[in-house]
Batch of 3 targets.
Target 1
Amino acid sequence: MKLLVLNGPNLNMLGIREPAIYGRETYQTLCDRVRAHCAEKGLEVELYQSNHEGDLIDKIQAAYGNADGIVINPGGYTHTSVALADALKAVSLPAVEVHLSDVNSREPFRQISYVRAACLKTVTGKGIDGYLEAVDFLANYRGENQ
């Protein structure tokens, strides 16, 4: 099983950007933990981060026929991008939306997610562990964790 883990704008700034909200762990730590978790489960993983909406859409489209599931933290595009939601719907891969912080307890605009409608599950407020939960969910959904 191969997963694509996508991260949107500003996630490359983890550990620097508002650590009281997003934590002190870096983006590299996030990548290392996801890779290690996938390796333990015998899963292939590709991680990608971009601050550009079109790049994220291109990666989603490229996953068609090449990946078995998508974990996505769209960052600020969560609340604005119908195009990301449409791309996820177009490839019809099982997807999980992840947010490091608990978006449901933050500003009202952060509680709106266009991407959520294209995902099987949303994980919020669990930091990097939320990514691991998303990986486990997709592995179980695809029958890889028997």
Target 2
Amino acid sequence: MVSAKLLEKYNVPVPRYTSYPTVPYWKDHIDAGQWVKTFSERFRGMSKEGVSLYVHLPFCESLCTYCGCNKKITGNHSVEAEYMSAILKEWELYTALMVERPIIKELHLGGGTPTFFSPANLEILLSAILDRSIVHPEHEFSFEGHPNNTTREHLERLYQLGFRRVSFGIQDNDPEVQRIINRVQPFEQVQHVTEMAREIGYKSINFDLIYGLPRQTEESIARTVNQSISLRPDRVAFYSYAHVPWTSRGQRLFDEHDLPSAAEKIRLYQTGKRLFSENGYHDIGMDHFALPQDDLYLVSQAGKLHRNFMGYTTQSTSLLIGLGVSSISSTGNAFAQNAKTIHNYYNQISSGKLAIEKGYFLSEEDVRFGKYILDISCKRATDFCKEDIPTIEEFCMPVLKMLETDGLLTVHDKTVIVTTLGKNFIRNICSAFDLHLLRNKANAGQKVFSNAI
């Protein structure tokens, strides 16, 4: 059990570390020419390795008030054709920068709600992308599906295109919690769509659950977890609710008195974690659990777990291409984010330009410290480079020593190892290597990140 004193001490705003540096430290405008040059050089150097492709499909038919994603609420499905056309134009712009056909190793459809799009339109979109590519023999294709609108035809057509993993956004099964977050979906519907996916042949089914939502209790979260376990999803993302009403307007609809305290929230997590463990699921990275036969567990055991803007993944590629509004691309030494509004995204793509706006070009120091953070989040241990020791001694070691005193990690020579207790505070431990955060303490009080708990 985690003490109330530790919870209070470490329940501070810290990033979720899907990148380093994190997005708030990126530049509001980046040199498009420099990005094109960096992208082209990196592609030439790793073209045989394969690329990761993320496609952001932002449309939703209704607003889930907890959601912090970039989305567009509409019931008008005529928007599908125009958006698909823009995605394919953007893909053409990227393939024009490649010296040969790209090898796609990883492809993920995120949202929004990807299954807002009709099965026929998803097939048209994906076929056009894949026709200009080579599919890696060890590829992993996945998509996010809403239980209420994912049909058998969605599942069958995407399966035929090579998709073998689906992630269903469940969040919570309690009717009162569902009403407050405007995400009403009967458990029977979740069961139905899960069984359909299994019948069709999907090898990995993920459930997204959230703890810390309004009016959740230990009893209600236990029911949700037990119901989910009864369907034996291969993996579960058990996310902490990120309350950031200053950026997500829908969250302003909540009565904050309905939100659990930090102590209550950690008990919700511990209840879920205990139930997952008792039913054969293994704790992986931050917030993830997987059965022993699932690839996520197998790669974590092999020390090959990876984390990027798509979360934890079994694939590790040097190049991630993000298509669509607000999508993020990464070359390993640079990040570029697309325009955040559909209007601006359409304008840039229609003018024959990449839609990138915000971004960051990494220094060699950024690359090394990003690796420390990736190691902690994926392997729960890291080793220092000799050249970084003076910087680590000045900025990181005071924080690491405090974390060690509290029993969250051990520091020995040039190695940091996370303890069992420290697994509850991975975000805090990652932040000990975040030089941008440590060097900008004057801005620490600003509302940028959600609390760690």
Target 3
Amino acid sequence: MSVLENNFDTKSTVSNVLDEFSTDMPTEDAALKLFNGEWSSHIPGFGFGYSAHIFERVRIDFFRNQIGTFVGKDVLELGPLEAAQTYLMATEGANVLAIESNKRSFLRCLIVQNLFQFHAKFTLGDFRPYLAATGKRFDFILATGVLYHMTDPLQLIEDMCRTSDTIGVWTHYYDAGQLKENPKLSHRYDHEPTEIEWHGRTMRQHRQAYKDMLTWVGFSGGTAPTSAWLTRDSLLGAFDALGFDVTIDHDIPYFEAGPCIQFCAKRRK
């Protein structure tokens, strides 16, 4: 018996292993096709995802205007999803550390980085324990599309505010006028708020359940089956309580996926 036959059950393994090889002509979009049906981003020049705006510069332009420049800035990006904003900040000269907990999203980030050839460090893991433990300070933290996926968004806000003086946020928030009366969204929320005494203020948040969203392989939400959505007043009030002033870029109460807001929070001098 050969060494190969001695060490491997060839009948049960070879066909499965060989299925993992590509025999196609190498193309730029071959790696993108590995995640067909999972992409959230519409990749410039290639397509794939359903959200064309993610790679547009409008969001990053707002944050750059708030901080002056990305050149030489140490940036912590929470939940890069598919590296769109990582790419935009890195190509403007930022030193980006991007932490992604979704394993498939992490791999898609690496594919985008390989495709567009930009410098950034992507790390697989949960940014919550990292923020709680790190002593490093960052010039800017980017937290777009993450707060409403947290089970404890107030703790994340506190940890971000300890780690940087400037924080960029895009997030959903709870508003009964939109969510309680919307038949497409209402069933996902507890409409009675949970009240939390926090830094001398009463904060209100509402439990949200992902439900059937968890059956999609491209799901890129939180690490638990539920999350907590802060009300708008509690969201902005949390930054105020920690000594930050907020500049709002846009606030859309009737956004189709739920009320959303984008702002930059800066520590008061």
